Amino acid sequence: MDLVRGGLIRFTFDASTDNYPVWSPDGAQISFRSDRKGTNLYVKPTSGAGTEDLLLETPAVKVPQDWSKDGRFLLYYEINPKTARDLWVLDMAEKERKPHVIVNTPFDETIAQFSPDGRWVASMPRALAVLRRLKKDRKLFRVACR
To answer: Is residue 89 in some structural domain?
Structure first.
């Protein structure tokens, strides 16, 4: 939606469902989920130029949640039949963009967000709120989960 001029502007043009958009911190890209080839993560420049690039393709359903402020990590949840919704990050600085799990518990970890300084991840599992902390080397580890 164009808030200055009003009206809607189409961003993607594939016939499949594209949803759950998340702005990159610099505003240059939007990540989103698409049902094109399974349910996978894509990214596209906000300028509208170029194509939608596939970020991650796995058999599981994935939904983007947030970008770290420095743009390095894309936070998302993945639905696992055994552990429900689990939080993962995709390191956007890595050439291969390998996914890294933050937490997988029997609870639904969703509505996740990075802290402003990028050192923590807050989420709302069905049972409680949880914080996760980033190590100094920017790798993730769990701080508390009850």
So the answer is: yes
d(CA 117, CA 28): 20
Task: Provide CB contacts within 8 A for 27, sequence distance 6+.
Answer: 46
How would you list the strands of the sheet with 140-142, edge to edge? 110-114, 120-124, 130-134, 140-142
CB 114 within 8 A of CB 104: no
pTM of the model: 0.82
The percentage of the chain sitting over the pLDDT mark of 70, rounded to a whole number, equals 83
Cβ 93 vs Cβ 87: under 8 Å: no
7 lies in a domain?
Answer: no
Residue 74 domain flag? yes
Name the band, by pLDDT with cuts 50, 70 and 90, for residue 104. confident
